[in-house]
Each structure stands twice: as C-alpha cells, then as structure tokens.
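Working notes for the structural subgroup meeting. M.R. asked for a predicted model of this chain before we commit to crystallization trials. I am recording the input and output together here so anyone reviewing the notebook later can reproduce the run.

Input as submitted:
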Amino acid sequence: MTTVESVLVRGSHLHERVAALSSSLDSQLAPQNKLVLSFDLYCLLLEYTALMGQLNLEHCQTVAELLAYDDLEFDTGVHKLGVFVDFFGPMNSVQIS
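Returned structure, recorded in token form:
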C-alpha cells in the first residue's frame, strides 16, 4: 500500500516533470494538446489528484470516480493537456504532443 507522503512526493515530481517538458516544448514552439502517460504514472496521477482534492477540501473525488471521466486534463500553468494512458508503453514514460 502506498502512503500519503509517498503519493505526495511522487505526484509532485510528476507534476514538475510534466511542467518542465511542457516548458521545453514551448521554447521549440511545439504544439501541446495531449499528455500520454505510462500506466504506472497514470495511476499515480489519479491517486495524487484524489489526494490533493481531499487536502484542499474541494469536492473529494475518489480514484474510481476519476477513472470514469473521459476527459481528464492536466494543467501545466500554461497549457491544459488532455490526459491519456499508454497501457503498452514503458513504465515511467511521459510524452506531450
């Protein structure tokens, strides 16, 4: 079982990683509409999102509720990227296109 601290740390690192990749693509003027995560990172993002909602006293969504959405978005601060999962990609992989 993962601990709250572990999810917070790993989720924060994922957010920083995606934001850095997005910033790098901005400097290349590359289009950014879609965030594709490996299954392990997709699950982490769902856990992190649910936990952050609970900590911020927002509408508390469970991971199961988040799984039901067809249109999850990741906000980099500059771009809102549609989130997709690559079930067959290598673990720990992130792509923006």
